[in-house]
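re: that chain from earlier
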Amino acid sequence: MPAQIISSLATTRRRILLAGALLCLGACTTLQPAKPQATAVDPPRKLKIGLALGGGAARGFAHIGVIKMLESQGIVADYVVGTSAGAVVGSLYAAGNDAFAMQKIAQQLDEKIFADWTFGGRGFLKGEALQDFINQHLHNRPLEKLGKPFATVATDLKTGERVVFRTGDTGMAVRASAAVPGVFQPTQFRGHSYVDGGLTSPVPVQAAREMGADFVIAVDISAQPDGQPVDSLSSILWQTTTIMGGVIGRNEMRDADIVIRPKLPYVKSWDFTARHDAMLEGERAALAALPAIRQKLGR
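^ sequence. v structure.
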């Protein structure tokens, strides 16, 4: 066989072997499972906690005990909303006072501090003393300048609508939220007359959601109608408010993740002497709620 033909056959054979090898290599590459590529996983977003503090006059000292227990367990609210007594405690808390600082302020509180009597016919108390008390302890900081996002809830006396204050004079907003009809005169604020926020939102869960809270802890300190004395005009008005607030509050609190109810049957609405008992009951109620709070927060 001529040498040229032999060389040509050898070359062709090498090409066939090379092509086969390449096909095998390609098949092996195709059959091998693809290695999973690492993808960046965003850490779970921290839930924003909202604290909705309800109304209840002197029973509001229980809010301090609740906050004290929650803080001791590292459960700190990102948003704070208060109605009436809850607005008083909430404003102090949002301004940067921890539970111990609020306990110290509570020692100074006496019903005489708020007794700015008037004979105008629209209420026994003006409410100016309460406004001044709040602004003094907050160094006249407006709502939007407090340490935590804070809001108060009041009721427009003319329209009956729930109104949420998030900016402006803090003392005035708290005064409007706490203006119990028949006890305090309606608060004139921004061209409107406002009364107690408990008429439309006794425990402001909805307002906490509106502010951006993912997880709402509601604190209900409302009195129960059973056994309350109704032997005067003011007590009748208070009883009426209690009954109305109970119905409205139950509906709103369904949207809360946790409801804390301190046991305060013996703490009367205007009994400032029971402040220590109220604070202790607040601590006990919050302690009992901790397992459910931890479970729902995934801690």
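Residues 111 and 282 are 21 Å apart (CA to CA).
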